[in-house]
Design goal:
Blueprint: H1 2-23, E1 56-61, E2 67-71, H2 83-96, E3 105-107, H3 110-116, E4 132-134, H4 135-145, H5 148-159, H6 162-175, H7 198-211, H8 213-216, E5 223-226, E6 229-232, H9 237-240, E7 244-252, E8 256-265, E9 268-277, H10 280-297, E10 298-304, E11 325-326, E12 331-336, E13 343-350, E14 362-370, E15 373-382, H11 391-401, E16 409-413
Antiparallel strand pairs: 1-2, 1-9, 3-4, 5-6, 7-8, 8-9, 10-12, 11-15, 13-14, 13-16, 14-15
């Protein structure tokens, strides 16, 4: 009798298992190794980068922050009026937060008038003592004419004092990863312990363009009239190169002549920064040479778009059998022209993914190398919520997991991408 009961139990288990198998879709096939992409253009020898007549310089790609060429880019130097790029950044952040407004009336204090006004040897917006000036006019005057009085007045309006504002500047610098920078004023007037680097100014410039594209357009305006006075932009590249749309000039005896410039050509944006040049012509010539070299010999490619499904690995105990994975931001690279075939992209994904997962949860990594060197590392995230499946689905997957080997991470080729230069990596240039 016992033998008969055991046989019946075994037969029932086999039937139950067979039914589950019939209801469970097959596992997705393993991804095939994608074909190697072909070069877009014949490989071209790349000459060495230009050597600007400056103490420090850097050429950065806007799309991904890659450094294409540099010299002493992390050396700490007086930044002169390139400081005002951070002043602009903080003001823009406060505007975006609704804490200040473009039509605010800003009081011109004695400190702003005395430290940055017409009685000094620095650049000025010619603001009158104890007058009230609209914030928009001060912002334009600081960016276009580089008015020290406008910068100080904006700082006092935002934070109550220039010292408190400089603390805000340093906090933002830390958040942006500007590790070689410390500010003590809003104008860039020479002061002990006030310094930055070419690399940090490029990082800041990239953040300004990315986070505040509308306000950045002010940098491309060639002249601005206020109170009967026409103020001209000191960035001479705006007149000589139509692709240049910013960013800022600066000069003091201690800092030398400095220029942060950005240009947009055929959807590709580059940022060049030179510090410590002998004159402004040398700074402009140096930035122009770096930009031309970068545009001539490099190309920016958007490899994968945000939200694109890059992998659909097996999902255990889920309402569905697969989990869609992608990236939260577009993945772009800038590489020498004609060498696209030296890119390799792989996905690192855990071998065992058990529901539930929520949208945006990180579960792996996209890695891109160029010529064997790491170039991009982006988190792989869940693209859609993946809740648990029903009771029988979880039970069946629990049985299958008993026979599933591997609990580490697997590396597979990423999907093949189509060769195409970035066309939406930067805001459009401002109209003149």
């Amino acid at each position: 009798m016992k033998k008969i009961l055991r046989s019946l139990s075994l037969m029932g288990l086999v039937a139950f298992t067979g039914a589950l198998i019939a209801q469970t879709p097959p596992l997705p096939p393993k991804p095939a190794v994608p074909p190697k992409p072909l070069p877009t253009t014949p490989q071209t020898p790349i000459p060495p980068a230009p050597q600007p007549n400056a103490a420090a310089w850097v050429l950065m790609d806007y799309a991904n922050g890659q450094i294409l060429a540099e010299h002493d880019m992390d050396a700490r130097r007086a930044p002169a009026s390139l400081t005002k790029v951070m002043t602009e950044y903080v003001v823009n952040a406060e505007l975006a937060a609704g804490k200040i407004h473009m039509n605010d009336q800003v009081h011109i204090s004695e400190h702003a008038w005395r430290a940055g006004g017409a009685g000094t040897d620095g650049s000025t917006s010619f603001l009158k003592l104890n007058s009230e000036v609209q914030l928009k006019d001060l912002l334009y005057g600081m960016i276009i004419q580089s008015g020290n009085d406008a910068a100080i007045a904006l700082a006092e309006h935002v934070a109550g004092s220039e010292q408190a504002f400089s603390d805000m500047m340093n906090t933002y610098a830390q958040r942006l990863g500007m590790t070689g920078t410390h500010f003590v004023n809003a104008s860039g007037y020479p002061a002990p312990d006030h310094y930055s680097t070419a690399h940090d100014i490029a990082i800041l410039s990239r953040a300004l363009i990315r986070n505040f594209p509308e306000q950045y357009k002010i940098s491309a305006i060639k002249s601005f009239e206020w109170n009967g006075i026409t103020q001209h932009n000191r960035n001479t590249l705006l007149w000589t190169d139509p692709s240049v749309d910013g960013i800022k000039t600066g000069s003091t005896k201690e800092a030398g002549f400095c220029l942060a410039a950005s240009a947009l050509r055929n959807g590709m944006r580059l940022i060049a920064v030179t510090l410590g040049g002998p004159d402004m012509n040398a700074a402009a010539t140096g930035d122009e040479a770096l930009l031309n070299w970068g545009f001539n010999f490099y190309r920016t490619h958007t490899l994968y778009a945000a939200g694109q499904a890059l992998a659909t690995p097996r999902l255990w105990k889920g309402a569905t059998n697969t989990l869609e994975l992608g990236i939260a931001e577009d993945a772009s690279v800038t590489i020498p022209r004609g060498r696209y075939d030296q890119l390799q992209a792989t996905l690192e994904i855990p071998q065992r993914l058990v529901a539930p997962f929520t949208k945006g949860q990180r579960v792996g990594t996209l890695n891109v190398t160029f010529d064997g060197k790491p170039l991009v590392s982006e988190p792989l995230v869940v693209l859609q919520d993946a809740p648990q499946g029903g009771f029988f689905k979880r039970l069946w997957d629990a049985i299958l997991l008993l026979f599933h080997r591997g609990n580490g991470t697997t590396t597979t080729p990423a999907p093949t991408v189509t060769v195409s230069s970035s066309s939406s990596v930067a805001p459009p240039a401002a109209s003149q």
